[in-house]
Amino acid sequence: MNKGKFFLIASSLIIIVFIAVYAGITLTSNLGKSDAEVSAEDAGKRLEKLYSKISVNTAEPVKGQIDINPVDVAESLPEISKFPITVTNTTDLYVEIFSSTEKGGTGTDGWLSDAASDFNSSNPSINGKPVSVMIRNIASGTATDYIKSGKYIPDAFTPSNELWGEMVKAAGVKTELISSRLVGNVPGIVIAKAKHDELVNSYGAINVKTVTEAIANNEFAMGYTDPFASSTGLNFLVTALKTFDNGNPLSSEAVKGFEQFQVNVPFIASTTIQMRDAATSGMLDGFVLEYQTFVNTPGDLKNEYVFTPFGVRHDSPLYALGDISNEKKEILKAFTTFVTGEKYQVHAKERGFNGLDDYKAELEPLDGPTLSAAQKVWKEKKNGAKPIAAVFVTDVSGSMDGEALNRLKESLTQGQKYLGKDNMIGLVSYSSDVTINLPIARYDTNQQSLFVGTVNSLQASGGTATFDGVVVAIKMLQDYMAANPDVKPLIFVLSDGETNEGHSLKDIRGLIEGYKIPIYTIGYNADIQALQSISSINEAASINADTDDVVYKISNLFNVQM
User: Fold this and answer.
1) Which residues are CB-neighbours of 176 under 8 A, at least 6 positions away?
2) Which of 43, 68, 147, 264 is the most buried (most CB within 10 A)?
């Protein structure tokens, strides 16, 4: 089975490591060569031709009042009911447990949920009182945000690995380790066999140190996931930093080494699904994944790829949180004894857990402040020496009038705090025509004020010329890069996905492919497939903003990509 077919079959089993579910699609095109294949030398001519057919206006930027307070994570988080309860308590005295998604879900990813249901059915009691557990399925990084911010603190937390527990502890939340391991798992780098053999011949062995060297030497293209949201992504980040300075992962030597390595990392995914789609396209030689997912994916994965473990183990520790009662602690201890018994450990192995138990953590435990500082290093250095130049393309057609436009404005005014002062930001709006509302400039305090004021002044009317807006954004970026070549271009399209005027995707698809600019799409009451068809061209993500967690979703998207 070839790589593309394997990953499409595997999509339903890949763990989503960020709360936002970005569903990629495969676009089948019947375009002729004149539409789909634009050479680098022809791209400029094609861009000018398309641009000349668009009615482009220039608006006077409007200043707005900016909020200089730090980002309020708690405010951006949705109500906890957004995350499903996979096991409901059956008694009045119970503990609520946040569980990571690879074990607290359903089906293959439902080992802990099934064990918890059986625990409740066994009619357990503490001091003569009937007790039970409740399991809430929530990704470790997102759960950590709830707990650290105080938005919602459950009785207990079982993340994928101990790193999140250390971060919760460092935030001042009282934690007590009930068990260092509920079930065994490890993260790893999954590498295509041919590339694996090539790297072994060149470097002698495969580990994070040799992988970072190969990436720095531009001999290996690997993607990894957002270390603010993904357990495997955070693990990879700190392991990589340690390869540059084992004694101090935050030293200038470590940071410099990481920055040089990061220059040649082609892809950082918001989710594993987004990374899967990039691998499907042949863009990546390898990617990060947990072993439980690796062995559970149908097809020929184990025959075509090699799994190399790294970092700390993902053994699902269990923590009691806050000032819970002794009775609740006793429930947690009884539950731990139940699920770590032979019967449920055998069940766990059937689900892909408890493999590679001979792997010993190659990373010494890190404390919460060090982990938070490592995330900060990643945020500042992930783009290497290249700042981002991004244009936001906003839909102000009549179909966006009302709630959709209001949500678009809220998304941008709240999410803009993540855009980064060293990046370059511009904004256009479109209906039947296209308006350049804010030319590209460094996102200093003045540009931030203009951005917020411009967003708040947007009004909806007219038709929908989405692809005209994209063409104008590409033209703005190309003009800016002619004078400032050392930037990385991005486009964000915020729309309902409907197009009824101007150019079509068929008209500009070749141009998007030729310039290789990722286009992230955010849909409001949207035709999501239409937006996904744009994002899928250059391996970008698409977000459905029709939920109460849209600000959190977009903030995390900006945090990763900007």
Assistant:
1) 319, 320, 329
2) 147
Distance CA 540, CA 460 (A): 27
| Euclidean distance between CA atoms 562 and 229, whole angstroms | 15
Q: Residue 201: exposed, middle, or buried by beta-carbon count in 10 A (0-12, 13-18, 19+)?
A: exposed
Check whether residue 141 and residue 206 sit in a common domain: no
Helix (H) or strand (E) holding 536: none
**Residue at 394: amino acid letter:** T
Let me know the angle formed at the C-alpha of 222 by 218 and 228, rounded to the nearest 5 degrees: 125
High-pLDDT (> 90) share of the chain, %: 61
- 224-250: string of b/e by CB count within 10 Å (b at 16+)? bbbbbbbbbbbbbbbbbbbbbbeeebb
Please name the residue ranges forming H helices in 150-285.
Answer: 162-170, 193-203, 208-216, 231-244, 252-263, 272-280
pLDDT at 24 over 70: no
CB atoms within 10 A of CB 341: 11
What CATH code is carried by the domain that includes residue 348?
3.40.190.10
pLDDT of residue 27: 28
Flag whether pLDDT at 26 surpasses 80.
Answer: no
> How many CA atoms does the CB half-sphere of 524 hold within 13 Å?
24
Looking at the structure of the chain, the number of domains it has is 3
- Dump pLDDT digits (tens) for 108-141: 999 999 999 999 999 999 999 999 999 999 999 9
Radius of gyration, alpha carbons of the chain: 24
**CA-CA distance, 282 to 288, in Å (whole number)?**
15
Of the candidates 400, 435, 441, 407, the residue with the CA atom closest to the CA atom of residue 422: 441
**Band of pLDDT at residue 11, cut at 50, 70 and 90:** very low
Least confident stretch, 78-87, 259-268, 351-360, 496-505: 259-268
* DSSP notation for 281-349: TT--SEEEEEHHHHHHS-SSHHHHEEEEE-SS-----EEEESS--HHHHHHHHHHHHHHTSHHHHHHHH
Most confident of 161-165, 223-227, 552-556: 161-165
Neighbours of 82 (CB within 10 A): 14
137 and 101 share one domain: yes
Per residue in 520-529, pLDDT (tens digit) is: 999 988 787 8
Question: Which token pair is 413?
Answer: 């005014």
**Mapping DSSP to helix (H, G, I), strand (E, B) and coil, where does residue 92 land?**
coil
- Let me know whether 176 and 191 are in one domain: no
- Is the Cβ–Cβ distance between 21 and 83 less than 8 Å? no
Question: Is there a single domain that holds both residue 416 and residue 500?
Answer: yes
Number of other CB atoms surrounding residue 150 within 10 Å = 12
Same domain, 458 and 550: yes
The CATH number linked to 427 is: 3.40.50.410
* Amino acid symbol at 401: D
Residue 344: give the domain boundaries. 79-185+315-353
The predicted structure's pLDDT at residue 300 = 66
